[in-house]
Amino acid sequence: MGRKTVLHDLHGALGARMVDFGGWDMPVNYGSQIEEHHRVRRDAGVFDVSHMCVIDLRGPGVRAFLSRLLANDVGKLWKSGKALYSCMLNEAGGVIDDLIVYYQGEQWWRLVVNAGTRDKDLAWMRRCASEWQAELFIIERTDLAILAVQGPQARSRVASLLEAEDREPALSLGAYEARECGLWFVARTGYTGEDGFEVMLPAEEAPSVWRALNAAGVASCGLGARDTLRLEAGMNLYGNDMDEQHHPLESNLAWTVAFEPAQRDFVGRAALERLRSAGVPHKLVGLLLEDRGVLRAHQRVIVAGEGEGEITSGSFSPTLERSIAFARVPRTVTDVVQVEIRGKWLPARVVKLPFVRHGRVLINL
Known about the structure:
This protein has helices at 8-13, 33-42, 62-69, 118-131, 154-159, 164-171, 206-215, 223-232, 269-278, and strands spanning 17-21, 24-29, 45-48, 53-58, 83-89, 95-105, 108-113, 137-140, 144-150, 178-181, 184-187, 196-202, 219-220, 282-289, 300-303, 307-317, 322-330, 336-341, 344-351, 356-357, 360-361.
């Protein structure tokens, strides 16, 4: 039996099918995974992401610590509530984890890291803080739950549950901004390619808020739909599309690495600069299957005259009604590849990511 979120009993009462996910007992769907996917694209759905880890960093040394710890540059963050997506790297440039950092003030920053990496992330941060003699406290917020409410109607549905004085400020948040609304921390972030809020709130409130969202027309959604939504939106999954053996430059995450200012010496920088100078041999691309079949992680990819690659994430796309994937392939690939599916080689077209954002199909079918 895996670890449980505070919503575990409610998931059972709602008929969820539970699976192990990173050591947690989590809902994969509540019935039709495809219908849950469409509800998020067309209306609003709520996901339990309380298995993810909220970490508060407090103290005068946080900015300097994060500037060295993260590949993206927290020097971009000066407005309270502003957020940034970044990778946290090892010395070889491999990805320890990807995360979101929120700036609340010079002595209060918040990180949200992945569930399956929380223990190693905390250990790494504490080790670095000790070695660098950073002036800060690292606090794991086990008292909080996280609800991800996503879809074109998601923000208005969440706002209806806020106190009157918090509704307009919450609805006025820009992308990758957050604010405190009473005891809730409301962030305009997400992992589906749709608009919405990720709400961090006292764990004991989560079941009643979930029920209130259901009553307001927000569908309960499981991690199955979350995976197909993020795949369509071109968003990486840690452990599949990047990990400690793969660096951001070969994982379609070069945009998250801030090499400027040149004097900022973040962990992994030297390794990435060597890789960049030598020429990165592989890249992560989108694939659209041109035949019938389902693309899955670890399937072989053949590129005529240029070598092999591998599917890192793949699934049937409910929006496109086609099979799609991410694949790590030789950097010169631009057109069509062959994918091995059950002993057969089927053609797949290389396409620019993302496949779908904000309900719009962005590729030619």
